[in-house]
């Protein structure tokens, strides 16, 4: 085949174009590809198989079968909703439950209070970072004594130990014994950080104990409200305290 003939045949060929979209189907979007048809067909057959399986299951079901979910479920807005059974409980039973709750919270609060006392005994309430500034007042008689007042001489210690509020030995003690304990600045800094952590833990436990006390008060208030005695709310419930009610006086027989 000559080159001229191939060139003429190529000129006679029409360029390949995609199939045109009919005007009536323009609103449906572009035509799908062959792969899209295959995926849609696979999804259609999968749903048909699922429907056939459900129909077979319904046909094989025993018409006399009963289970309680049949009467506990209902359809709302096309969604199955299971009815939650109401708790059958008497006021006396509810009162007893409140009492058990109070006992449990009080037990945890007492345990927390014991841990607080143990921590206080370990720390001896030493000064810690974040605590308020400490003041030590000395009383003198004249202005001259104020100007000439020497704290180190008054406390009978060396000037390097004046700023310490605990474990401040006197000069006689320093002459008789050597300074015990760590003196390395890095070690002292580490001990100070540990002491700060212990005080943080103590503060957290104190706050937790206060929160448990408030919870026990609120539970007790809810328990008292179960009585049918006429009552008037005096103060609303807050995060730091329960609501306050004024109950009508009722004479006990």
UniProtKB/TrEMBL annotation:
Picking any one GO biological process from the record gives:
rRNA processing
For this UniProt record, the keywords arranged alphabetically read as follows: Nucleus, rRNA processing
Note the superkingdom of the native organism: Eukaryota
- Listed InterPro entries: SSU_processome_Utp11
- Feature: compositional bias, Basic residues: 7-17
Annotated coiled-coil positions are none
Please give an example of a GO cellular component term from this record. small-subunit processome
Positions of transmembrane segments: none
Which residue stretches belong to region Disordered? Answer: 1-27
Which subcellular locations apply to this protein?
Nucleus, Nucleolus
Family listed: Belongs to the UTP11 family.
Q: What is this protein called?
A: Probable U3 small nucleolar RNA-associated protein 11
